[in-house]
Amino acid sequence: MISRLNESIVRTPKGGSMELELQWSSFHTPYTEAEVRKFVPIFSGVYLLWVKYKSGKWECFYVGRAQNLEQRLLDHLGDDEPDKCIKNNVQYRCGFYWAEVSTEPNRIGVEKALFDYYRTECNDVDPGGTPIHVNVPAKRE
């Protein structure tokens, strides 16, 4: 059963830029349909996809936002995934995090901040928008 996480806490520091304190899910691996259906809600939010290299090191290869986290994560696993970089990476041992972000303007800003922070292999296009600074999950080792 999936329970709704608390909404993100918004605060504005002295500098005036917005920040959100996200409640990230635990790290889920393997990245499979069964794992997604078991743990990912049908809520809006942002997500991070990770791949494990032969060296044992984990690397974030994609950041995204979605109206429906469960469906979007399932879409990436489908045969018709249009992004060749994602399609290639999901063939290997992968994992993911997600965090609920309820409003579209906040999702856009959080995705931009994550894009800037991770500089992933598969995010070719800057999502645009004004970054909303967020906490990030612990780096995978």
What does this structure look like?
Helices cover 26% and strands 23% of the residues. The chain is globular, with a radius of gyration of 15 Å. The chain contains four helices and six strands. The protein has one domain: GIY-YIG endonuclease (3-Layer(aba) Sandwich), CATH 3.40.1440.10. The protein has a three-stranded mixed sheet, covered by helices on one side. The protein starts with 8 loop residues before the first strand and ends in a 7-residue tail after the last strand. The longest helix is centred in the C-terminal third of the chain and has 15 residues. With 141 residues, it is an alpha+beta fold. Strand 1 and strand 2 form a beta hairpin.
Q: Provide the spatial order of strands within the biggest beta sheet.
A: 1-2-6
Low-confidence stretches: 1-7
Computed over alpha carbons, the radius of gyration is 15 Å
Compute the number of helices: 4
- The CATH superfamily is known as GIY-YIG endonuclease
Estimate the global geometry from the Cα principal axes: globular
- What's the count of strands? 6
Annotate the secondary structure layout.
Blueprint: E1 9-11, E2 19-21, H1 33-39, E3 45-52, E4 58-66, H2 69-77, H3 84-89, E5 94-100, H4 104-118, E6 133-134
Parallel strand pairs: 2-6
Antiparallel strand pairs: 1-2, 3-4, 3-5
Which tags fit this structure?
disordered N terminus; three-stranded antiparallel sheet; 141 residues; GIY-YIG endonuclease; three-stranded mixed sheet; 4 helices; globular; alpha+beta; 26% helix
